[in-house]
Amino acid sequence: MPEAIRRLATIMMADIEGYSRLMGAAERDTHVRVSRLQKELIEPTIKEHRGTLVQVTGDGFMSVFDSPVECVRCAIVIQQSMVGQNLELAREYQIRFRIGINLGDVIVDGDEVHGDGVNVAARLENEAAAGTINISASVYEQVRHKLVCGYQSLGDKRLKNIQDPVLVYRVLPDPASVIQATRKFSARVGVLTAACLLLLFAAGAYAWQRLIHPPAAPVALIRAPVITNPPPEPANPRIQEAVARVSPSPPTVPTVINDPGPPDPNPRTALVVPPPSPKPAPPSVHAPEMVSIPGGSFQMGSNDDPTERPVHRVTVPPFLIGRHLVTLGQWRECARASSCREAPAGGDDEPMGNVSWNDAQQYVMWLAQMTKQPYRLPTEAEWELAVRAGTDTKYWWGNVMKANVAICKGCGELKRPQKVGTLPANPYGVFDINGGMSEWVADCRARDYMGAPADGTARVTPDCRDRVLRGASWTNDASYARSAARDFYDASVRYPTHGFRVAQSR
Question: Contact 333/286 with Cβ under 8 angstroms?
Fold first, then answer.
């Protein structure tokens, strides 16, 4: 028998809220759905975040991680994925996990894990609401400066069979939801009431406009017979009445011609054409300003990090890239067209953040459709060529970070993204590409550059879950602002530090 050992581990416990009710309502269907989730979501996600699945029960699972950051990140991906799984299901058929996470000393005995650390995680899971993640203070202290998400303190909790109270936090993937989570019921009722009143007002205004400006009758081409022997002129000599005889199919409306004009050279018929109705103007689209990049060959990557190796030569055709990150104002146009989710608060000239890769892809597809231009996300090679701007140093200005050229930790006085174009552009005329927002590109995640394309195209694998991010955000240190620096994250997860810019082939 192998000897049991002690180790420090991060334990994730999860179960399905209302599992017995689900099984009672549809036993076989629930079993099939839970088994599929286990194979297609739970197991791959735990593995991708370097965790170990220790135990699986009918309605839950336990896993352990070396890293609290990876454990919480894994839990967020699972919960965000379940939101998408449940979108089209009625509430009573939704599968929703409760997750508890604790960092503690445990006993590892073969394939089993025991100890108070496990017990605390299980109690945290019991305290969690459906679809949420509860973490202990020990986990919070490790992740609060490493993950860009919100945390809501639930205070000290007396957990069953745990001697001392445990300070519990709820993880909120969107920081704005911290305010939402503590909002009073009366405030929610007030917002709903205001929304209803606004809708009623809009409906009333629309009805009034229809009353005073009724819609125009359908436009039709009417052939009216010319009256060769007119009756005596009416009292007003300037008016003649021509009665149009209309064919029964399609049905039309008789038309009165106030001024018939000169005699028609054709003695049989005259063609009367009503003026065309004005066409609605196309929706306004302020497409991002583009910069022409000449393309060419360059040495991609560096020896500063294993993910940036090997350094390899890439030849990129000429292309266009956004001079700025996509802004809140540009995103709001997509939202008004009901093709993108609502934008957060902020000025129209501030960069759009808190987007997943899927969100960014949705925007470029909408933009391409509206403008009839082939917009897309830049490839990783295109992005690095654009940021280097013909240089081979760590940054386009040299090998040492300069103050107030990029927004990151230790990069100057600016601590958060400003309106686009605040800091100097690089020699190609591209702004804010080193720091401020981490930027999504088209490529799928790869451990390094082994086997990477040499022609500047994106590296894409079937059904890849993680995509590449380039450039530093305001929460990263200066090493992330290097031209070669790269990062990866789940394509379906939103974080405030993630933005993007668009590209086009030329």
Answer: yes
